[in-house]
Design a protein that fits this description.
Elements (H helix, E strand, L loop, with lengths): L1 H26 L5 H43 L8 H6 L3 H19 L8 H36 L3 H31 L1
Length: 190
């Protein structure tokens, strides 16, 4: 995890620098209108891109744990619980949430006019930050699902409790989705 955070730190610093430069450029009216729309579309894709990266990592972690748990079950001549597939697939939903944000941001790009040209910064920040938050939620949900795979395969008990704990981790992504929708809808009304 610290390796992931260490690798993201320079990227986030560069993004902050780029945002500062972009804000200065908008103030100086240096960015043509069509380029602002292109930046919004790029930010729209980052919402699903970052969410999908987290989902891939989370599903990979949980799937590896499920396979290891099944191996232990087979080695002990116990039935391999099918429910582990539910744990392995749980982090996929964040990609769907990222896709919803992507479509809303793309709709925002269609509604941006020359009169509201500076709004591209808000659309971009929502798309990028929502994608990152959803991706981190998926990553941690996968790590939690890996622990749930091991526990359920070992005991055969606690499936509902483990699934509820995964739901708590997913709630972060749901909150981000809801707040993104509210923020983006207020931009469209401006």
């Amino acid at each position: 995890m610290s390796l992931l955070l260490n690798s993201l730190t320079p990227v986030l610093a560069q993004a902050a620098d780029a945002a500062q430069t972009a804000a200065s450029a908008v103030a100086a009216q240096d960015i043509p209108f069509f380029e602002q729309k292109a930046l919004i579309y790029a930010a729209a894709f980052t919402s699903i891109g970052f969410a999908a990266i987290g989902s891939a990592y989370g599903c990979g972690s949980a799937s590896c744990a499920a396979m290891g748990a099944w191996k232990k079950c087979y080695a002990q001549n116990k039935p391999a619980p099918f429910q582990l597939l539910i744990f392995a697939g749980a982090p996929l939903s964040q990609t769907i949430y990222g896709m919803i944000v992507m479509f809303i941001v793309m709709g925002g790009a269609a509604s941006v006019s020359a009169a509201t040209a500076g709004q591209w910064i808000a659309y971009s920040l929502v798309g990028i930050l929502a994608g990152i938050a959803m991706g981190v939620s998926a990553l941690w949900q996968g790590i939690s699902a890996a622990a749930a795979c091991d526990a359920f395969a070992e005991t055969g008990k606690g499936f509902a409790n483990q699934l509820m704990a995964l739901g708590i981790v997913e709630t972060v992504a749901i909150f981000v989705l809801a707040f993104s929708i509210v923020l983006l809808s207020s931009l469209g009304a401006a």
